[in-house]
Design brief:
single chain, 3-stranded antiparallel β-sheet, disordered N terminus
């Protein structure tokens, strides 16, 4: 029923406006023809709905608000996980391509940076779909932050919050700690290490390893690739070392 109401509202916008009332297969629209105000009937191919447009619009808004609220909520792992996992067979079956993100850096360098490096001498246009995918990721991130963002704090365990406080990170209200990642903190040593050095290591490491977490952990492991297993073990080991040893030293 909700889909019928939504379709009816859409057609009402297209064919009449907020004052349109549907009766049978006719649409009566108040209009000024000479004077005084009178009604004219226009035939449409709609089914017999018999509900005023104003009610249709309210129902459509209610449906859209419910949809936006549903999208804005955190998705459980048993929903988001399979969706991410299905990207692997979909890429292989439908596109005959491997899934990955970090390789887009190589494609961008090959397309934009003039050089004589053998590493960048290849037909990057054949991999342009990867750049389109990255643009879609950026666009989706912008839409999510602009229209579907929630003011609710990130759900963290009490142990994680306590450890962050011990490290001097008190503001956990946003998507990232304000004490580290803010425009007014760009000159701080800790922030420079996190952004500049950390960004360089991520870019260099993914290219040196031949892929990132998506290319190795999602795609490579599904192919039973030994190099991907080694890379994933390195990812987790590096994350543990950073979290428990290097991060406390940086934030001192």
């Amino acid at each position: 029923m909700e889909l019928v109401v939504a379709a009816r509202a859409f057609l009402g916008v297209c064919f009449g406006g907020s004052n349109a009332v549907f009766v049978g297969t006719q649409r009566r629209v108040p209009t000024l023809t000479n004077s005084p105000l009178r009604e004219r009937e226009i035939s449409t191919s709609m089914c017999d709905l018999g509900v005023p447009y104003g009610e249709s619009r309210r129902s459509t808004f209610a449906i859209m608000n419910s949809l936006v609220e549903w999208i804005s909520q955190p998705w459980p792992w048993y929903v988001a996980g399979p969706i991410i996992g299905l990207m692997v067979p979909l890429h292989l079956i439908l596109l005959n391509r491997t899934f990955g993100i970090s390789s887009s850096f190589r494609h961008m360098c090959a397309a934009c940076v003039p050089n004589n490096l053998d590493f960048l001498k290849y037909d990057w246009k054949a991999e342009s779909w990867n750049l389109v995918f990255v643009v879609g990721v950026l666009l989706g991130s912008f839409l999510a932050a602009q229209y579907f963002a929630s003011d609710a704090p990130i759900a963290l365990s009490e142990a994680a919050v306590s450890r962050m406080h011990d490290l001097g990170i008190q503001d956990l209200s946003g998507q990232h700690p304000a004490e580290l990642f803010a425009w007014n903190r760009l000159g701080d040593f800790q922030t420079l290490v996190m952004i500049v050095l950390g960004g360089f290591l991520v870019g260099f490491g993914t290219r040196y390893a031949g892929g990132c977490t998506s290319g190795h952990a999602i795609m490579g492991l599904s192919h039973f690739q030994l190099p991907s297993l080694v890379a994933v073990l390195g990812f987790f080991t590096g994350g543990l070392l950073m979290s428990w040893i290097l991060l406390p030293l940086i934030l001192q």
